[in-house]
């Protein structure tokens, strides 16, 4: 510990070699000086002067916190900036001066690293990622393409960060200021160090049970502990998002990113939102999106758990360390039913986005949809009434697909977004209003394959349906190829642990839709012509390309799967329609 009472002109941040002989010869000591610098001889440290009363109060608080953490010196030295002591001096005007003395690691903050153009190879060299280091995160190789290198580096940093934050939580403390600028990487021991520029090292850390009232103390302490841990985990989620998606380092884009949560949207729909905000129709053109899409979309799942709207739903440090996204291929992780359900849905969405529906892809999508229906988390109408309201974007139909390429229609129509909006008429009944919005563009001229500019329009269909409990029957005499392959999957050892069926069931629970009358309107930005046949041809072409269930909503007879991000509806002919929840406003389009 360094303690003393002396005066000399300080600088705000002074890096120097702490040597008692150097101190005595360089500065004029005006009062008694007592130094205990045996362990710090010839050690480079940082002298950080705290000027304001608030900064000094937090600096002294940091000393108290670090005294408690330093009991386990190995963990403390690995995952926290070392504080050697403090210097207190009395100024001529009667005010006191407080200076922290902490370790110097000659490294930038993580924010500074990510803002560099060559941050990936430089940070890899700083961390010296060899075979031993990647083995500690469950990986098997080093190097490789940029996506693999970036993903491996994210696992190294996130696991190190979570271990350090869990160290604080296990000692009854919350950091409360986890940000990229408060995280440094030490090239000496290749660990991340957490501290804050503004308030001193852990100066804003708070105890879980501090200032707890005497009445209902156990309940209050439990709520306080849960809220403080949830706040830290939310900060970790924002840090992970910036490390993976470099676009979020832009303040304007990050403001849109945070507005997604302030508006109360479910974090499970974050991928659908970011694809539009980042102006990527597919994830293949962005390294960060590819990282999150890997391993059955495990990265999106971890982000949604870290950034959950309800604090009670957020994942803890230990649970995050066991998440498949942070475990390399060397580690075998037994996925839960929620993770498998998430993976099936994520893979189905990615296949549907490719828009090249060959026969193997169509079979895969049908298998994934049927497996999702067996794992549906909501089978009762009251649960559907709570989850289904919202705007859903149409992704895929197992029915027929007719495009423009091999036909000569009277009107060239390019289909845009097709959405289904579900609203609950009243909380007192079980009736839903369904509105289908089909956006399209009527292309003129013969150069339509290269020029997609034309007259924009929208076809809107409205209907109301009453929902009630029901079941979807599997007819035994229908021995189709898809059902045979699905039965083989259910009999395999991989799926027995998750799906409680030894063979294809005869029926599954579903929500029956009882439709009412239908209204249909069409809107065009500009009139095509005075001929009514032109509008009739446009409607006919839209009906040809769009699944008939979205044109005639009365053909939707049951719902078989719904969660916070995906919806599956079945029609009268048995085809399935896959939707994803859309959280975009009109001004984002």
From TrEMBL:
Protein kinase domain ranges (all copies): 1-326
Domain of life where this protein originates: Eukaryota
InterPro entries listed in its UniProt record: Kinase-like_dom_sf, Prot_kinase_dom
Name of the molecule in the record: Probable plastid-lipid-associated protein 14, chloroplastic isoform X4
Annotated source species: Cucumis melo
Gene encoding the protein: LOC103504130
């Amino acid at each position: 510990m360094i303690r003393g009472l002396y005066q000399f002109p300080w600088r705000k941040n002074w890096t120097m070699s702490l040597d008692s002989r150097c101190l005595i010869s360089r500065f004029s000591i005006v009062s008694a000086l007592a130094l205990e610098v045996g362990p710090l001889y010839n050690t480079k440290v940082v002298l950080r002067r705290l000027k304001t009363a608030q900064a000094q109060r937090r600096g002294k608080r940091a000393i108290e916190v670090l005294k408690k953490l330093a009991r386990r010196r190995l963990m403390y030295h690995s995952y926290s900036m070392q504080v050697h002591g403090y210097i207190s001096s009395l100024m001529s005007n009667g005010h006191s001066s407080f200076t922290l003395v902490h370790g110097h690691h000659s490294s930038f903050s993580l924010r500074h690293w990510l803002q560099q153009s060559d941050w990936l190879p430089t940070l890899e060299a700083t961390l010296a990622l060899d075979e031993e280091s990647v083995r500690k995160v469950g990986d098997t190789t080093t190097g490789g393409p940029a996506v693999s290198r970036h993903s491996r580096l994210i696992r190294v940093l996130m696991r190190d960060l979570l271990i350090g934050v869990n160290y604080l939580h296990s000692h009854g403390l919350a950091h409360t200021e986890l940000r990229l600028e408060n995280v440094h990487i030490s090239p000496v021991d290749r660990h991340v160090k957490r501290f804050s520029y503004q308030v001193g090292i852990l100066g804003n850390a708070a105890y879980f049970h501090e200032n707890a009232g005497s009445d209902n103390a156990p309940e209050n302490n439990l709520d306080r502990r849960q809220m403080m841990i949830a706040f830290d985990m939310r900060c970790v989620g924002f840090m992970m998002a910036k490390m993976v998606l470099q676009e979020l380092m832009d303040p304007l884009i990050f403001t849109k990113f945070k507005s997604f949560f302030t508006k109360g949207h479910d974090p499970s729909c974050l991928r659908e939102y970011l694809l539009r905000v980042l102006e990527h129709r597919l994830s293949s053109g962005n390294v960060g999106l590819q990282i999150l899409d890997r391993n059955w979309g495990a990265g999106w799942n971890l982000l949604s758990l870290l950034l959950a709207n309800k604090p009670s739903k957020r994942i803890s440090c230990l649970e995050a360390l066991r998440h498949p996204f942070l475990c390399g291929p060397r580690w075998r992780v037994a996925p839960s039913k929620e993770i498998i359900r998430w993976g099936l849905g994520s893979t189905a969405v990615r296949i549907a986005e490719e828009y090249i529906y060959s026969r193997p892809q169509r079979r895969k999508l049908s298998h994934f949809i049927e497996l999702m229906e067996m794992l549906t988390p909501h089978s009762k109408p009251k649960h559907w009434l709570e989850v289904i309201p919202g705007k859903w974007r149409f992704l895929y139909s197992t029915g027929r697909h007719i495009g423009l390429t091999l036909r000569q229609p009277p009107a060239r129509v390019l289909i845009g977004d097709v959405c289904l909006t579900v609203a609950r008429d009243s909380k007192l009944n079980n009736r839903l209003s369904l509105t289908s919005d089909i956006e399209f563009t009527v292309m003129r001229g013969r150069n339509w394959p290269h020029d997609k500019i034309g007259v924009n329009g929208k076809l809107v269909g409205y209907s109301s349906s009453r929902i009630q409990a029901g079941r979807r029957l599997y007819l035994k005499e229908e021995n189709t190829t898809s059902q045979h392959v699905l039965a083989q999957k259910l009999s395999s050892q991989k799926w027995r642990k998750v799906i409680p069926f030894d063979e294809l069931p005869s029926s599954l629970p579903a929500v029956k839709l009882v439709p009412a009358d239908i209204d249909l309107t069409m809107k065009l930005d500009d009139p095509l012509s005075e001929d009514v046949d032109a509008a009739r041809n446009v409607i006919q072409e839209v009906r040809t390309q769009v699944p008939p269930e979205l044109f005639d909503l009365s053909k939707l007879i049951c719902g078989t799967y719904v969660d916070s991000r995906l919806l599956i509806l079945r029609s009268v002919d048995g085809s399935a329609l896959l939707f994803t929840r859309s959280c975009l406003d009109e001004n984002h389009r």
